[in-house]
Amino acid sequence: MLEALRAEVCEANLELVRRGLVLYTFGNASGLAREQGLVAIKPSGVPYEKMTPADMVITDLDGRVVEGSLRPSSDLATHVALYRAFPAIGGVVHTHSRHATAWAQAGREIPCFGTTHADYFDGPVPVTAPLTPAEIESEYEANTGVAIVRLIEGRAPLGCPAALVAGHGPFCWGPSAAAAAHMAAIVEELAAMAWQTLAIHPAAAPISDALRDKHYFRKHGPKAYYGQK
Predict the structure, then answer these.
(1) What pLDDT, in 10s, does the model give residues 165-216?
(2) Which of 24, 34, 62, 150 is most buried by a 10 A CB count?
(3) What is the set of active-site residues?
């Protein structure tokens, strides 16, 4: 079932390793076959070097396993919450990459200090509010998804393709699992650059709205002109 999606999701997970975004069994990637309402996701706790497309677990959008002999990622409920809330997305990635996770642990959004950031986000990479004790004790992973959805409310999810979960780490998304893995690498680079910017100049301010919007909209939207047609 869904062999092509399994292969794409497995490759997205392996890309996280190649980009140095995960250690051991940290992190997970998933992809969605929206017409069928089925998700392929990394199995829980399986080392990346042993993983194959056949190991990807297929679930429905309620998190029920449809096919696969392994347990799905423990973050499955967060992934499906994002798929249900954001109809435009087809892939979700979660990592504990060093710099992005440091910003999440500090409970700070990543400011848009330069045009590299603005090429991908029309604003900061936002951070959720901390989960309450009740949210942590009851359906923790699902409530993590709720916190992200609440944070992105009113924004276009593909215009803000990632969020930091306070005290936890980044979740990224895109139209496919491959795009979500790409975004995870971008967010880690933006986090590192922002940290270094503040180390050099602690009072650094975000770039102007005009410069930010120029760079964002030359790559995104109906008037984009970056790259080839």
Answers:
(1) 999 999 999 999 999 999 999 999 999 999 999 999 999 999 999 999 999 9
(2) 34
(3) 119, 226
Q: How far apart are CA 144 and CA 121, in angstroms?
A: 22
Q: How far apart are CA 136 and CA 189, in angstroms?
A: 29
Residue 123: name the closest of 149, 161, 160, 86 by CA.
160
Q: How many Cβ atoms sit within 10 Å of the Cβ of residue 125?
A: 27
Structural domains of the chain in order of their starting residue, each with its CATH number: 3-217 (3.40.225.10)
What's the sign of the alpha-carbon dihedral 55, 61, 66, 72? positive
CA distance 125 to 127: 7
Low-confidence ranges of the chain (pLDDT < 50): none
- Give pLDDT, residue 227: 87
Q: Which amino acid is at 171?
A: F
